[in-house]
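Hi there,

I know you've been waiting on this one. I reran it after we fixed the sequence typo, so this is the corrected version. Both the input and the resulting structure follow.
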Amino acid sequence: MKKVRCCETMAYWYDQLWNQRNPEPIETVLADDFVLHGHGGEKITKQGYRAFFDAICQGFREIHLEVVDQIEEGDRCAMRLALTATLNSTGKKAEFQMQAFIRFDDEGRAVEAWDTVDWYGYLTRVDALPADTLNLVIEEGKTFTAL
């Protein structure tokens, strides 16, 4: 069994793919049977990841990810990331958080990943969602559909 350096591989992934906008890691880091969970409930396969990458790059003129914290155990890596993104349509820039949990195969390729992105934080910072939305939900008992 090959020694897998999960967190090192993912740090490379985030830097090259997102910070440098280099799609090459899609081919070199993802296993053929890769599945990503956590983006709108859809599962994104290796074959679909390039379209996902292209769509994100079209929507954001700048994306920067920084690994803030990481834990590696065996074939798994958990990471907390700080993101800065600038929306193309408005030019608004915001900082927000993301967590990722990734499982690797014996060859050192990512086979499954789960992402959780603080879209609420991002959307309020670019004025796409009222900043007091969460307070209204908590204090007034409203649901998001009632807003």
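Quick highlight: The beta strands are 30-39, 42-45, 60-73, 76-87, 93-104, 110-117.

Best,
R. S.
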